[in-house]
TrEMBL record:
Claim: Cell division is one of the keywords in the record: no
Stored InterPro entries: FAM173A/B, Methyltranfer_dom, SAM-dependent_MTases_sf
Compositionally biased residues, Basic and acidic residues: 299-317
Alphabetical keyword list: Methyltransferase, S-adenosyl-L-methionine, Transferase
Natural source organism: Ottowia beijingensis
Keyword DNA-binding found: no
Protein name, UniProt field: Class I SAM-dependent methyltransferase
GO function terms (MF aspect): protein-lysine N-methyltransferase activity
A single GO BP: methylation
Ranges for domain Methyltransferase: 95-202
Taxonomic lineage from the root: Bacteria, Pseudomonadati, Pseudomonadota, Betaproteobacteria, Burkholderiales
CDD domains given in the database record: AdoMet_MTases
């Protein structure tokens, strides 16, 4: 009976018209070799790094970013809405704050800061199509007067006036930015999505929308020699306090108690505020909490029963904060 062969030929062969039992391979023309010196990995890299150029060929008015598209330093993946809100909460954003987003992408963090928290926001983004897209989104959200975007390189930008800085960058980029961030005014709040900053421990960690957010408070420098004044059992104390080193937000030092000295306990700097404790010559553990203002600290000392005022004055300049991992 004449009909179709009783078997399916394997890939790469055809059935001979006159004899269905005879098959012959299909010969394809050879593929041209890749350019000299361009291996598969390099080819993949070339295609990957070309993606921003493709994106910029889009019609600016209809441009829609795609999750996973390549950018100058990172690929773009949008932050979940739940995490955006939590990041801004973590940063304590209010209507009085100026928020800068490094690598602003589609602008959602800056727009949320303006719309949900009443803040002023500024997004720094390298891709001009993204900048135009984010600007249109801010206009549609009715916050274009408080949310603006610029095409710029984050490593060449000045963000020293920010109260809050948000980021969703790779760890290597966070580390590259870290020296600049450490020089910002004490108390500046830094919030990142997903990635940390090496040896600089976050002050708080949150999770929302299936992802992590981290908060850092740029610490004041309390290193150096201080004169500490407070009341102990009704008598005024005037003690020498030495903060030998401060690694990020963790100072280490001692207080001179006459013929003895004692180490600072649980010492920590939280932005403009500092906390430490030690046991006095009366055997009472006292906790000091104050605000750092240049070479002066003012605050309250607690002995478990009552609180009183204390001051500390620095003598000369202290060493720089240690930031080596």
């Amino acid at each position: 009976m004449v009909g179709q062969p009783a078997f399916l030929p394997p890939p790469g062969v055809t059935v001979h018209d006159a004899n269905p039992c005879f098959v012959r391979p299909v010969r394809h023309p050879p593929r041209p070799p890749p350019p000299a010196g361009l291996g598969s990995a390099a080819l993949a890299t070339a295609l990957w790094t070309a993606a921003p150029a493709w994106a910029q060929k889009e019609n600016p008015e209809t441009y829609q970013p795609q999750s996973g598209q390549a950018g100058k330093d990172v690929i773009w993946v949008p932050t979940p809405d739940e995490l955006v809100t939590r990041m801004l909460q973590l940063g304590g954003v209010t209507k009085n704050d100026y928020v800068i987003d490094l690598g602003a992408g589609d602008g959602k963090i800056v727009i949320a800061a303006a719309k949900e928290f009443g803040a002023r926001g500024h997004g720094i983004e390298y891709n001009p199509d993204m900048v135009a897209h984010a600007t249109r989104r801010a206009q549609a959200a009715g916050v274009s007067d408080r949310a603006r975007f610029e095409k710029a390189d984050i490593f060449e930008s000045d963000f020293s006036k920010a109260d809050v800085i948000t980021m969703y960058l790779l760890p290597t980029l966070n580390l590259k930015l870290r020296p600049t961030l450490m020089k910002l005014k004490p108390g500046t709040r830094l919030v990142t999505h997903a990635f940390t900053m090496g040896g600089w421990q976050p002050d708080e960690t949150s999770r929302a929308g299936g992802a992590n957010a981290y908060l850092w408070l740029v610490p004041a420098n309390v290193s150096g020699q201080w004169q500490l004044n407070y009341s102990q059992s009704g008598r005024q104390q005037n003690l020498a306090m030495s903060v030998e080193r401060q690694r990020y937000q963790f100072p280490e030092g001692t207080v001179q108690l006459g013929a003895a000295d004692t180490s600072l306990r649980d010492a920590r700097v939280m932005g403009e505020r500092v906390r430490f404790a030690f046991t006095g010559t009366d055997g009472v553990l006292r906790t000091f909490e104050g605000k750092v203002n240049g070479g002066k600290i003012e605050g309250q000392v607690h002995d478990g029963k009552k609180s009183e005022r204390f001051t500390a004055t620095r003598k000369g300049d202290g060493p720089a904060i240690e930031t080596a991992d």
